[in-house]
C-alpha cells in the first residue's frame, strides 16, 4: 500500500512546518527526504505516522498497526536487551510463537547484532542502537516504513547494514520514507524530496533533480559574491543563476550537496531578503 500527502500544511503556532507539500511514497520504493535543520522532515514523517494532524491538505497512510516508525530519538528501551526490545514490539503488534521468534532472529541477524542479542540497549554503541531501532520498526513487516534519520551517528560499516535492511524492506514491498542529512547517501534512494523551511525545492530521481537544476556552479578560492558561495573541502563553490557568465575559475558538475545548498540559498536570499540573483 502506498502513502501520500497532498498540499499538506502543518503549523505549530507561527511556524509553518509544512507549506503545501505533496509527496507520494509508492510501495517498493525508497523516498529520501533531505533538507537542513527545521526543514520539516520530521513533521512530514510524523504526519504520515498520524502523530501530527494536517491544518490543510490531504493524506493517505495505512493505519498504525501497518506502519513502522523509527523516531528521531533512541527508538528502543535502554533497560531491555536487544531481543527483549524486539519481543516487546512484536508483542504490541500481536506477533508471538515460533513465527515471531524466527522473525526476531532474522532481524537480529540482518542488523548485524547476533553477538549482542542479550546485551541491554544501554550497552550498545550509538550505531548498534540505531540498527536495533530500525529492526524494531520493521519487525511486523509494515507496508509503510517511516525512518527519521536512521543513519545519523552510525559508522560507515553499520550504515551498510542499515541500507541493506532498508533495501530489503522495500524489496519485500514496503513503501519507505526516510529522512537523512547525509546527501551522498540520499543519492542512493530511488526518489528524492528536497525540503527547505516547509517547502519542496525539488523532487524526483537523482537524475531528475540533477537535470532540473538550472544555473552554474564554479570552484574558486575567491568567490565574486561570497553570499552565494559555500565551503567544499579545501575550496569554495559559488552559484551563478541561469544566463550569468561566471567570471571566476572552473565550472563543476554539481552533486546533490551543491544542488541542495544552491536551491536553499536561492530561496533564502532571493525570496526572503530580496538579494538579487542576477550576477554582476
Ligand atoms: N511540536 C512542535 N512545536 C512547535 N514547533 C515545532 C514542533 N515540531 C516542529 N516544530 C517546528 O517546525 C519546524 C520543522 O521542524 P521539523 O522537526 O519537522 O524539521 P526537521 O527538518 O526534522 O529538522 P531537524 O533535522 O532539525 O529535526 C521547525 O521550525 C520546528 O522548530
UniProtKB/TrEMBL annotation:
<protein>
    <submittedName>
        <fullName>Putative ABC transporter ATP-binding protein</fullName>
    </submittedName>
</protein>
<dbReference type="InterPro" id="IPR003593">
    <property type="entry name" value="AAA+_ATPase"/>
</dbReference>
<dbReference type="InterPro" id="IPR003439">
    <property type="entry name" value="ABC_transporter-like_ATP-bd"/>
</dbReference>
<dbReference type="InterPro" id="IPR027417">
    <property type="entry name" value="P-loop_NTPase"/>
</dbReference>
<dbReference type="Pfam" id="PF00005">
    <property type="entry name" value="ABC_tran"/>
</dbReference>
<keyword id="KW-0067">ATP-binding</keyword>
<dbReference type="GO" id="GO:0005524">
    <property type="term" value="F:ATP binding"/>
</dbReference>
<keyword id="KW-0547">Nucleotide-binding</keyword>
<dbReference type="GO" id="GO:0016887">
    <property type="term" value="F:ATP hydrolysis activity"/>
</dbReference>
<feature type="domain" description="ABC transporter">
    <location>
        <begin position="3"/>
        <end position="222"/>
    </location>
</feature>
Amino acid at each position: 500500500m502506498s502513502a501520500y500527502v497532498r498540499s499538506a500544511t502543518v503549523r505549530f503556532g507561527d511556524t509553518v512546518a509544512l507549506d503545501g507539500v505533496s509527496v507520494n511514497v509508492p510501495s517498493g520504493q525508497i523516498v529520501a527526504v533531505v533538507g537542513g535543520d527545521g526543514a520539516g522532515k520530521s513533521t512530514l514523517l510524523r504526519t504520515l505516522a498520524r502523530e501530527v494532524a494536517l491544518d490543510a491538505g490531504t493524506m493517505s497512510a495505512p493505519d498504525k498497526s501497518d506502519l513502522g516508525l523509527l523516531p528521531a530519538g533512541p527508538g528502543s528501551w535502554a533497560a531491555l536487551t536487544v531481543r527483549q526490545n524486539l519481543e516487546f514490539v512484536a508483542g504490541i503488534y500481536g506477533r508471538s510463537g515460533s513465527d515471531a521468534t524466527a522473525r526476531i532472529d532474522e532481524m537480529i541477524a540482518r542488523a548485524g547484532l547476533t553477538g549482542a542479542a542479550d546485551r541491554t540497549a544501554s550497552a550498545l554503541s550509538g550505531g548498534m542502537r540505531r540498527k536495533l531501532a530500525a529492526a524494531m520498526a520493521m519487525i511486523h513487516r509494515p507496508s509503510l516504513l517511516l525512518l527519521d534519520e536512521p543513519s545519523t551517528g552510525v559508522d560507515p560499516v553499520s550504515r551498510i547494514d542499515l541500507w541493506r535492511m532498508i533495501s530489503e524492506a522495500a524489496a519485500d514491498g514496503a513503501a519507505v520514507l526516510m529522512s537523512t542529512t547525509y546527501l551522498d547517501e540520499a543519492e542512493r534512494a530511488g526518489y528524492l524530496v528536497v525540503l527547505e523551511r516547509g517547502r519542496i525545492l525539488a523532487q524526483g530521481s537523482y537524475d531528475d533533480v540533477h537535470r532540473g537544476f538550472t544555473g552554474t556552479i564554479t570552484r574558486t578560492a575567491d568567490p565574486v559574491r561570497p553570499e552565494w558561495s559555500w565551503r567544499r573541502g579545501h575550496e569554495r563553490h559559488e552559484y551563478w543563476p541561469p544566463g550569468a557568465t561566471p567570471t571566476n575559475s572552473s565550472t563543476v558538475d554539481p552533486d546533490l550537496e551543491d544542488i541542495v545548498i544552491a536551491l536553499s540559498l536561492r530561496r533564502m536570499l532571493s525570496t526572503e531578503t530580496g538579494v538579487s540573483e542576477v550576477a554582476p
